[in-house]
Known about the structure:
Layout: E1 13-19, E2 22-28, H1 30-39, E3 44-45, E4 52-58, H2 69-73, E5 78-80, E6 92-96, E7 101-105, E8 114-120, H3 125-138, E9 144-152, E10 158-163, H4 170-176, E11 181-183, E12 186-190, E13 197-200, E14 210-221, E15 226-230, H5 232-239, H6 250-266, E16 269-274, H7 280-291
Parallel strand pairs: 2-4, 4-8, 10-14, 14-16
Antiparallel strand pairs: 1-2, 1-3, 5-6, 6-7, 7-8, 9-10, 9-11, 9-12, 12-13, 13-14, 15-16
Helix pairs in contact: 5-6
Amino acid sequence: MRRFSLPVTVASDSVAVAFGPVCVAFEGPQACLELLRCRYHDRLADPVAATARVRWIETGGIPNELGSPLAVVREPTQWRPTSGDSAGAEAVDELIGKSFRIELATPQADAPETSVRVYGPAALYPIDHLLEILLPAAWCHGPLLHAAALVREAPPPSAWIASGPSGIGKSTLARLCGDHAIADEVVAIDLRPEVPIVHSLPYSASRPAQAPLVGIHLLRQAPHHRTRRLAASQALRRLAREVLWPPPNPASHRRLFDQLSDLVTRVPSWELSFAPTPDIWSFLTRSTKVAA
């Protein structure tokens, strides 16, 4: 197995973080874990509840050419799917960057937890890369979507998600909706038999929360507010572009596509054209109620 030829610091502690319905336990040096405690201070959890475990092995510092936030975000990575070397050996896939490597072990029948090893510096950007592959791999009860989540607290509580590509206005919409917004970037959907549940995930501006999902909005920027009801097939095509897909695997991709189909069949969808004005929340509540 490939290894960096850099000094390794031995792990000494652990911390668990609740990423919505996925609890991840991290083990590693104190410097690494303290970064997690600071960023996810409102999401700390009991390690006993972990469904994924990450071993963080510190392997040197951040290269000089990655000294800026923009350079870190644009660090090129390569995905290397591999297989077990012999009968019974675990399959390990790798995501490799210039200064880090992530090994993702396929869960086995006798060890259902997702197991990950991260080799890299004591910095959060390898973890950001990790979460893009770990969370979709560890959560199998529904899709993870690039979306804002908006909650109406009046009993019974209910939620809408607002999804679309980067730059379309998810964060703007969440900001304009104030305390009604529980997430502005990524959400997890739990396709429970009685009603789907949306969970906020700790990206950007979010707070720990969940609520029954009653509507899906696919966003468009426009000079005026307007909603248009979408057929399930239309919503499926557009929503599929906003999924955090798990590492390449035909079975998991088929499962996730089936879950998306189930989601848009059970939950009504609209195209939401909106202008960035403070009245968007009141427009949204009125128009969705009438359209439903």
